[in-house]
Amino acid sequence: MPVADAVSILSQGYTPSIILAVVAVLLIIRQRLAVQLDPKEPPILKPKVPYIGHIIGLFQHHGAYFDKLYARKPMPIATLPMINAKLYIITDPVMAQNAFRHKNLSFDPFTLEFAQRMLGVSDESMVPVRFAGDEKNPGFLAQFLKEIHEAMRGEYLHKMNADVLNGVAVTINELGKTFEPESLFYWLRGTITVATSNALFGSFNPFKDDPALGDALWDFDNGLMGLILNLFPAITFPAAYKGRAKIQEALIKYYTAEHDLDPSVSQMAKVRAALFRRKGIPAFDIGKFELALIHVSTANAIPTLFWNLCFVATAPKTTATIRKEIESIITVSTLDNGKREAVIDITKFDTHCPVLVSSYRETIRLANAQLGARRAMEDTILSDGKNEYLLKAGCDIQLPAGVPHLNEAAWGPTASSFDATRFMSPEERGDSSAKARLEDREQKRSYFPFGGGKHLCPGRNFAFAEILGTIAVLVTGFDVNNRDGGMIEIPKLGRARLGEGVAKPTGKGLTMGARIERRTGWEDVVWKFTC
Ligand code: HEM
């Protein structure tokens, strides 16, 4: 049928004025939906499907969507239109660091919005938390940040490191000659969840004797985005919802009994609870808030440990080098019961174990794709030293670390593969030429797995000690193989989901078993750490 005939059939019964009205409405909708862009704002990166393409892309591909966008069109900074809103993304390392440090670009709105949805805290308890400060008093979040950063330094950090690693040692020392976990990931997850929660919550740690509570934490983690969306979460994300309730019930009992005042408790847990109390928040809501403490302390560290162990256990040369490095910081003595005690001095990791440390940083480079979030609180000019961009007040900014972490311009043609020695310093590699030092500087700039500015992860030094200490003992004291005794296969390392910083293994990777066997010469050894 000719087009003209089709149009006339379609318009039968309609007057031209109705058709004109429909067209006008469509144009108005289009104009309303079109993102208004100041010429000084970052250039627009259009989605393939108009208006909603970026939203679909993010929900479909999670963190990997930013890799896809960058592969399609590498842009240092861009505006993503989303229906009639816009999101800025920054992948240029210099601009990202400037964004992390900029006083107008804040993380606080996300803390406030997400805390309540994620943790289900009461409106009354959010009132003091929302206090932004005045001439006389600092805001709640500013005070909170200052106190938790101070609580993760010096003697407080040493205590936490010693507590977590001696907790790991308890589990390791109980292993027989051969131990075969059905899932390497779940075994590490259970062991580190208990050791970390002991280090945080001390002698009355509710996770200590209740493995179901550890499982509940990971159910919560698995459905975190669903809880944040908050659309009938009891029905839409029942496992996460129940997991949250179970842990919060245990933590409410803990804070009601004021177990956080016990001397065995970490300074980190103590100062947080003390501040909540000073602001009049009841134990009921402190228990709810502090689910965030155990979650943030385990969610990224445990998958990082898993990937680090997989990378090292599948590289015999790296394993051999790391064993030599660790052996140089172990002191062995004979105990009264005739057993030998091997003490690992973790304060020597940096000076004596360059490959171990480098393998950790390299694991993080590949596995960490955190999507640092900030909101522009005022119209703000951001610069990379050459170009300036306007970020409009109220717009959100995303700083996806995964893009610079895999950028060949910084890391060379092997950017997407694991190189255990990549993070050794030019001096450690025996090449301190100007070129090597320049490359090293460029790489350091392109690496921001722990965020930046005043929100730079306060747990990064604890994670360093916990992960490297666990790797050190497993690699030196044991052979880690698959259940048949052959080399394990590294599971597929994907990109983190929205709400995660580090990807967890999926599918077969989750259920990959292992054989952990005491090494010849180390069979009768009891492990310990000095921190
Ligand atoms: C490999 C492990 C870890 C990674 C990759 C990691 C990463 C991060 C990132 C990306 C942020 C947000 C920073 C920003 O937006 O600028 C963060 C914040 C935070 N992390 Fe970690 N983290 C790890 C381990 C830990 C541990 C073990 C703890 C506690 C013992 C911890 C406690 C925190 C806290 C309390 C915050 C919030 C800080 C704030 O709001 O300013 N993290 N972490």
From TrEMBL:
<feature type="binding site" description="axial binding residue">
    <location>
        <position position="457"/>
    </location>
    <ligand>
        <name>heme</name>
    </ligand>
</feature>
<comment type="similarity">
    <text>Belongs to the cytochrome P450 family.</text>
</comment>
<dbReference type="GO" id="GO:0020037">
    <property type="term" value="F:heme binding"/>
</dbReference>
<dbReference type="Pfam" id="PF00067">
    <property type="entry name" value="p450"/>
</dbReference>
<keyword id="KW-0408">Iron</keyword>
<keyword id="KW-0349">Heme</keyword>
<dbReference type="InterPro" id="IPR053007">
    <property type="entry name" value="CYP450_monoxygenase_sec-met"/>
</dbReference>
<keyword id="KW-0560">Oxidoreductase</keyword>
<dbReference type="InterPro" id="IPR036396">
    <property type="entry name" value="Cyt_P450_sf"/>
</dbReference>
<protein>
    <submittedName>
        <fullName>Related to cytochrome P450 7B1</fullName>
    </submittedName>
</protein>
<dbReference type="InterPro" id="IPR017972">
    <property type="entry name" value="Cyt_P450_CS"/>
</dbReference>
<keyword id="KW-0472">Membrane</keyword>
<dbReference type="GO" id="GO:0005506">
    <property type="term" value="F:iron ion binding"/>
</dbReference>
<dbReference type="InterPro" id="IPR002403">
    <property type="entry name" value="Cyt_P450_E_grp-IV"/>
</dbReference>
<keyword id="KW-0479">Metal-binding</keyword>
<dbReference type="GO" id="GO:0016705">
    <property type="term" value="F:oxidoreductase activity, acting on paired donors, with incorporation or reduction of molecular oxygen"/>
</dbReference>
<dbReference type="GO" id="GO:0004497">
    <property type="term" value="F:monooxygenase activity"/>
</dbReference>
<keyword id="KW-0503">Monooxygenase</keyword>
<feature type="transmembrane region" description="Helical">
    <location>
        <begin position="6"/>
        <end position="29"/>
    </location>
</feature>
<dbReference type="InterPro" id="IPR001128">
    <property type="entry name" value="Cyt_P450"/>
</dbReference>
<keyword id="KW-1133">Transmembrane helix</keyword>
<keyword id="KW-0812">Transmembrane</keyword>
